[in-house]
Each structure stands twice: as structure tokens, then as C-alpha cells.
UniProtKB/TrEMBL annotation:
NCBIfam families: maleylpyruvate isomerase family mycothiol-dependent enzyme, TIGR03085 family metal-binding protein. InterPro entries: CHP03085, DinB/YfiT-like, Maleyloyr_isom, MDMPI_metal-binding. This is TIGR03085 family protein. One of its GO terms (molecular function) is metal ion binding. Residues 5-129 form the Mycothiol-dependent maleylpyruvate isomerase metal-binding domain.
Length: 209
């Protein structure tokens, strides 16, 4: 089983377990909303633009709400469980495009529940996350108010954010650094080193894609 398929299965198992009204780390979204988002992302390419482009966000939101109105929650989760669109046909593309998306959203559900604990991830998955951070950290941290030095436990350093001025060091495993850079700062198991003011500014910054 690929990492993408493993995260997909684990996420769907958890969605089934929690039901439609459980919280997630996605602001304003329940598990029902998250399931509709994932179905939209894979099966409604006409509405995907609003995920990243604010001028199109209204249409995307309307399609997502329509999916919720049209499909009961168990039906949406079942659709998420089966890769849709081209991802269902090309396993390699599913792995390349969806591993991080599904990992982050799996953690969005896990970490919104009481008494969650960080998972021990396979070494090859941690390595994949570090490679993606190496190529994408500058984009994810483009709105950082201070320079950011990412220290991976076990080895590896990345620089992102403003080049001049103060810096904050963020130390953790690759999966935790990924969650931090995706805007889940308050729920990432990392250590921040810097002046208190700069640390607070970075924690509150709108990071992510």
C-alpha cells in the first residue's frame, strides 16, 4: 500500500468513527465539511480553483455546500475512501499529489480531538516530507513575518521567510515541521527559539499554501 492510500484509509476510518459533527483544525469546518472538501478536490475540477484563489472561493464554497446537501455524510466518506478522478486511475499520481494533502487533513482531524498524540511515522515518509519541505518551504513561509530556520531532528536545515532581519528557529521531526509550515503552528510538536515577540508573531502568522 502506498503512503497516500494508507493515509486515505486511516483518515476515512477516523471520519467514520467520529461522525459528521466532530471538530477539525480547519477553521469553521466539521468532519462533514472536510469530507465534502476532499470529494470536491478530486471529483469536481471545475470548483478546485477556489481552494487557492480567493476570487473563486465563493463558487468553491457553494459546490462544497451542495455536496453536503446532496450526499449523506457516510456517502461522502465512502467517496473519499475510493480515489476519484485521475487519482483513482493512476496510483503513482495519487502518491505524488495526495500523500501530503491526506496526511495533513488526517492530522487536522486527529489533532482536533482531545488527548491526541503525535504518531511515529515511517522513516521513508519522514524523508518524503523533508524533500517536499526542501522544495516548498519558501512558498509555505512566504507570509512569515520573520526569517525561519527549520531544523530537522536527525539532520537537515532549511532557511525561509524574509532574508534580512530577525529569525526564529523551528526544530522538530519532518512531519511536525510540515504541519507547522502548513499553518497548524499551535498543533505542531516543534520547539521555537527566538525572542518572545518574534516567536509569537510567527505562531500567529497565516502560513501555508
Amino acid at each position: 500500500m502506498t503512503h497516500a492510500r494508507g493515509e486515505r484509509t486511516a483518515l476515512c476510518d477516523l471520519l467514520d468513527q467520529l461522525g459528521p459533527d466532530a471538530p477539525t483544525l480547519c477553521e469553521g469546518w466539521s468532519t462533514y465539511d472536510l469530507a465534502a472538501h476532499l470529494v470536491l478536490r478530486e471529483r469536481r475540477p471545475d470548483a478546485m480553483g477556489g481552494i487557492a484563489l480567493r476570487p473563486l472561493a465563493g463558487y468553491t464554497a457553494s459546490v462544497q455546500n451542495a455536496l453536503k446537501a446532496r450526499h449523506p455524510y457516510p456517502e461522502l466518506v465512502a467517496k473519499v475512501r475510493r480515489p476519484g478522478g485521475v487519482f483513482g486511475l493512476v496510483k503513482a499520481l495519487d502518491e505524488a499529489v495526495n500523500t501530503i494533502e491526506l496526511f495533513v487533513h488526517h492530522e487536522d482531524v486527529r489533532r482536533a480531538q482531545p488527548s491526541w498524540e503525535a504518531r511515529e511515522l515511517p522513516a521513508e515518509l519522514e524523508e518524503l516530507f523533508w524533500k517536499r519541505l526542501s522544495s516548498g518551504a519558501r512558498l509555505m513561509l512566504r507570509r512569515a513575518p520573520v526569517g525561519v530556520v527549520l531544523h530537522r531532528l536527525g539532520g537537515g536545515v532549511l532557511l525561509a521567510g524574509p532574508r534580512g532581519g530577525p529569525k526564529v528557529e523551528v526544530t522538530g521531526r519532518a512531519g511536525e515541521l510540515l504541519m507547522f509550515c502548513f499553518g497548524r503552528q499551535s498543533h505542531a510538536k516543534v520547539e521555537l527559539t527566538g525572542t518572545p515577540g518574534n516567536v509569537e508573531r510567527l505562531r500567529d502568522a497565516p502560513l501555508g499554501m
